[in-house]
UniProtKB/TrEMBL annotation:
Residues 48-60 have a biased composition (Acidic residues). Residues 21-72 are annotated as: Disordered. InterPro entries: Immunoprotect_excell_Ig-like. Residues 35-47 have a biased composition (Low complexity). This is DUF4352 domain-containing protein.
Length: 184
């Protein structure tokens, strides 16, 4: 029985790797076709000013800096940072005694077709660049059904501000949305 299970897993892994390899090669072929098409379009439209490309690059770099009130979508999930504030509330049973406890309030909107977990979808880095641990207060944990929204809260112990907040679904391979916020 163990040999059969091992053989089954090996076959499944092989099929998965082959499928992924085929997807990547077809994507790169399509990318090559697209770049050829874009190159010919660029040659035909060479009278366009190059300043337009520079302004597009500036807009994309500016749009990567998000702050309170902004919304970002990562892998079909929308995150809106509602507020970041310090709290004097402490948990007497906490293992740590951070200099400050910050309360992060955000909204999650599930744009996927499946239920998603909420509560493990953000990371916080303090002003020194250190990843901060969640602080045990009234933190939101649970799941969210497709097409629904949830107001969530997470607390983190930090040493100093400002902070960076990385939003990303628990099971995702996309880059996170990065928000920055001052802590006073």
């Amino acid at each position: 029985m163990k040999k059969f299970l091992l053989l089954f897993v090996a076959i499944l892994l092989t099929v998965t790797l082959v499928a992924c390899t085929e997807d990547e090669s077809s994507s790169s072929d399509k990318g090559n076709q697209d770049s050829d098409t874009n190159a010919s379009e660029t040659e035909n439209n060479s009278s366009e000013p190059e300043d337009e490309e520079d302004s597009d690059e500036q807009e994309s770099s500016e749009s990567q800096t998000l702050s309170i009130g902004d919304t970002a979508e990562v892998d079909g999930i929308k995150y809106t940072l509602k507020s970041v504030s310090l709290t004097e509330e402490r948990n007497e049973f906490a293992d740590t005694e951070p200099a400050m406890v910050v309360k992060v309030e955000y909204e999650v909107e599930n744009g996927k077709e499946d239920e998603i977990p909420v509560g493990a979808d953000l990371e916080v880095y303090d002003g020194t660049g250190n990843k901060m641990d969640s602080y045990p207060l009234d933190n939101s944990m649970g799941s969210l059904q497709p097409g629904k929204k949830m107001q969530a809260t997470q607390h983190f112990g930090i040493e100093e501000g400002p902070i960076e907040i990385y939003f990303k679904p628990l099971i995702s391979f996309e880059d996170p949305a990065i928000f920055s916020a001052d802590v006073e």
